[in-house]
Description:
It is built from one helix and no strands. It has one helix at about 1-120. The model has no long low-confidence stretch (mean pLDDT about 90).
Amino acid sequence: MSGTGAALRGHHAALREGLSELRARRDELSGRIRDEEAERGRLQARIATLSRRLSETSESLAGLRSARAHIDRTIAEMDAASGQILDNSQTLLDVLKEEMGDLGKAIEPHSASLGRVRRQKRS
């Protein structure tokens, strides 16, 4: 039996050594798990921060784009109004020239008769 007892002690020692190795691996894995969980927590915090920044940036962009669109509309309206003013000014100038021409024609016969009257008085 002493052979059997020695064999049992040998097996028992091997079991203890195996359990010790498993416990060491478990402790190593527990450390790695803690490290990964900490990294995961840091990443989640960064994601939350970046998500807030993304949301704020998106809102800011929407406001900026709206302001730019308003300015674009104002510029387009002013360009159109400026074009209308130029067209109206040109029309007014054309009418003025026409009226001046008509006035000149109306004054010429009167001027010619005045010139004759003046010449007659001098003589």
